[in-house]
Design the sequence.
């Protein structure tokens, strides 16, 4: 990854652990990425893949997390070694965060206007009155009608979509260089989702900031991001431009995510292609490639089971994937994968291409290698994703367990 | 909001009626003759004619239900009668005793709030530190110590011992009664007064202080985990401001109830503390009236205590609305 002067944030080989009674959890395990001014950077993954923890670590909001190694360079300075009172000045003013659930993320006992204005009072030293005026301005900017009246209301008097707009208004009050949006639309219904994302993009252009968009919703990724990092079990498994990720995926997990999406042009009788099994336990991770127990293409026995694949350049300038067989996936498209699964179901294996010979998983060795997590709930077709233009696929799991 | 307060005030009427009627009727089940008491004492040999005249004068020869009716007629006009024992007006006794009770209660509440809440907060913020562990043990013990035990121990340590060891006069605290000096702003002791006040106030505050500390700790621990606290940190607020500006008010919700209930109790039911320290308040007077069969005093003081308790509870409920806007009462337009 080239460093240029447009790079705002550069996360380098970040490794962090939680020490729990059950053992050491690795929510972030050697993650590196750059975010440049003006771009929208997507972080995608299932619940528990480490995407939220990565974001929290940037702001230093995970008190129980232990950083083992790596650095988080913000405009060239390492946030991890910065003294706390300097880091606090970065929070809110330079890097602001939009949280997932705006009902619990807003304080129930203060008015919305006061909570927005507080940002300006901390960082710009505004008076109470001036801060209130700023809050009204901000509410207007995010498209809340009657902002003056709304500023005096409490979060419980707002609807879900309005709360999320208020949350955005709060985050942009000091015109931060980077906005981190952690599943900003998960708690909202689809029509409101679209409005909120529009507001977010419009504001990004207005204040010329970058956005890190953390989501499990591939529809949001397709519509908003410039570049994407796909995370699995605390690691980046594929990074690239949004087009590269969507049209030329080079990692079986990315391919699986895309294939599991229902599509608007489906006739209705196509099977959905699940990623079998569930995400690995972050305490007892599989050997070799962390994804191999669930991988349709894994060579077991083979190096997938024994060797941990590094994230490496696989195409273009910046398209990286962590798969031993990334090159061989070049010929596999989402359509062919779905077709193959369909064909497979009709037991017409004969026509398959070479890399897809292992398309139908042999459950026996797979389960054995899958370890505890996959063994318990294996085969329930847990998948993430949302249709680019349709309703999102169900994802009811919480980011629990590893993100206390 | 106004209609809510009016409704609540009206509810006090049946509460008072039931409480006092119960007490009144209970009184006639007790052994002992009030007329004899008025005439000078149960042991004295009193002329039957004198007793009859006394009964007639005080209406004690009427049927119980007639006496009951007369009592309420007078009470509604806030005529609480006079003491059987010494003919003092009950209103006057009530006035004297109530101010002392309120002064003691105010200081107990101040100690409870200042010590209880700050100890609880520190304990929550420094969870599992040595300070927190010690606090947990001490508060468990303090909330279990009977008032009279604590009272005697404090009297020994801060009054008896200093006298034996010849401490300077100002450092010897008083064990009993109330000082001759006056008060400023109603409740701030002047001159020697604080030496009389400090031990009963600490004794009265002890149990509730411990409970408040534990409750504040638990409530704050829950609040510290809340999403809005993370939001406040993400804004760049210093940790102290996060706790004080965003955590405290949320954590105080359950604590306010306890303080309110305790204020009512501290005024009317501080019997043991007032007895131990000879503090001339309502509680000790109520106990004396029971022993003396002094019905007008007993009923008058109880009436005042019940009303005070109900009003304080109402104030607590209304103050919730300030602490938690989600329960603004009687204002349903936004649900």
Sequence:
């Amino acid at each position: 990854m080239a460093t240029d002067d447009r790079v705002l944030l550069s996360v380098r080989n970040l490794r962090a652990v939680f020490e729990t009674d059950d053992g050491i959890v690795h929510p972030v395990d050697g993650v590196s990425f750059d975010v440049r001014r003006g771009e929208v950077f997507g972080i995608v993954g299932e619940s528990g893949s480490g995407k939220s923890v990565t974001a929290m670590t940037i702001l230093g909001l995970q008190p129980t997390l232990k950083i083992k190694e790596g650095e988080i360079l913000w405009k060239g300075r390492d946030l991890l070694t910065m003294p706390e009172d300097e880091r606090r000045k970065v929070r809110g003013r330079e890097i602001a965060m939009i949280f997932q659930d705006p009902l619990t993320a807003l304080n129930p006992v203060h008015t919305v206007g006061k909570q927005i204005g507080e940002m300006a009072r901390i960082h710009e030293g505004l008076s109470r009155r001036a801060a209130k005026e700023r809050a009204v301005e901000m509410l207007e900017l995010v498209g809340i009608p009657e902002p003056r009246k709304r500023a005096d209301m409490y979060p419980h008097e707002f609807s879900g979509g309005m709360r999320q707009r208020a949350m955005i208004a709060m985050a942009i009050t000091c015109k931060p260089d980077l906005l981190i949006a952690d599943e900003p639309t998960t708690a909202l219904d689809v029509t409101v989702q679209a409005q909120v994302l529009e507001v977010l993009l419009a504001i990004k252009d207005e204040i010329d900031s970058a956005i890190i968009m953390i989501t499990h919703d591939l529809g949001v990724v397709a519509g908003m991001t410039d570049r994407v990092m796909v995370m699995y079990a605390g690691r980046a498994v594929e990074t690239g431009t949004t087009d590269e990720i969507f049209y030329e995926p080079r990692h079986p997990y990315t391919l699986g995510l895309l294939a599991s999406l229902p599509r608007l042009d489906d006739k209705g009788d196509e099977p959905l292609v699940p990623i079998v099994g569930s995400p690995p336990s972050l305490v007892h991770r599989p050997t070799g490639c962390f994804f191999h127990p669930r991988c349709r293409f894994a060579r077991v026995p083979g190096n997938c089971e024994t060797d941990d694949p590094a994230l490496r350049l696989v195409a273009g300038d910046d398209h990286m994937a962590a798969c031993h067989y990334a090159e061989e996936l070049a010929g596999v498209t989402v359509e062919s994968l779905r077709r193959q699964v369909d064909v497979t179901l009709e037991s017409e294996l004969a026509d398959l291409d070479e890399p897809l010979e292992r398309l139908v998983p042999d459950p026996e060795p797979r389960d054995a290698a899958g370890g505890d997590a996959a063994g318990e709930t294996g085969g329930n077709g847990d998948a993430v994703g949302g249709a680019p233009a349709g309703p999102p696929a169900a994802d009811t799991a919480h980011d629990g367990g590893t993100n206390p | 909001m106004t209609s809510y307060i009016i409704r609540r005030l009206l509810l006090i009427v049946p509460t008072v009626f039931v409480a006092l009627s119960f007490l009144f009727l209970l009184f006639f089940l007790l052994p002992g003759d009030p007329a004899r008491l008025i005439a000078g004492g149960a042991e004295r040999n009193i002329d039957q004619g004198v007793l009859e005249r006394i009964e007639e004068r005080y209406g004690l020869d009427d049927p119980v239900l007639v006496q009951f009716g007369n009592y309420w007629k007078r009470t509604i006009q806030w005529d609480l009668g006079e003491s059987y024992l010494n003919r003092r007006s009950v209103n006057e006794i009530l006035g004297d005793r109530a101010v002392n009770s309120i002064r003691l209660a105010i200081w107990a509440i101040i100690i409870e709030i200042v010590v209880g809440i700050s100890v609880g907060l520190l304990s929550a913020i420094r969870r599992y530190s040595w300070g927190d562990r010690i606090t947990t043990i001490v508060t468990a013990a303090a909330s279990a110590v009977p008032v009279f035990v604590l009272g005697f121990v404090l009297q020994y340590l801060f009054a008896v011992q200093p006298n034996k060891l010849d401490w300077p006069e100002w450092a010897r605290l008083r064990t009993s009664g109330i000082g001759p000096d006056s008060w400023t702003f109603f409740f701030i002791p002047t001159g020697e007064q604080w030496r009389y006040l400090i031990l009963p106030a600490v004794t009265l505050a002890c149990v509730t202080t411990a409970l408040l500390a534990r409750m504040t700790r638990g409530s704050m621990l829950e609040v510290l985990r809340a999403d809005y606290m993370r939001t406040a940190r993400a804004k760049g607020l210093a940790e102290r401001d996060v706790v004080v500006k965003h955590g405290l008010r949320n954590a105080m919700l359950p604590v306010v109830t306890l303080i309110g209930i305790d204020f009512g109790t501290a005024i009317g039911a501080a019997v043991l503390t007032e007895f131990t320290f000879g503090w001339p308040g309502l509680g000790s007077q109520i106990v004396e009236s029971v022993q003396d069969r002094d019905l007008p005093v007993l009923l008058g003081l109880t009436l005042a205590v019940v009303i005070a308790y109900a009003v304080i509870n109402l104030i607590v409920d209304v103050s919730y609305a300030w602490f938690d806007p989600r329960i603004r009462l009687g204002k349903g337009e936004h649900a």
Remarks:
- The interface with chain B takes residues 59, 61, 85, 88-93, 96-97, 99, 101, 104-110, 118-119, 122-123, 153-154, 156-157, 170 of chain A (CB under 8 Å).
- Confidence is low (pLDDT under 50) at residues 346-404 of chain A.
- The first strand of chain A starts at residue 7 and ends at 20.
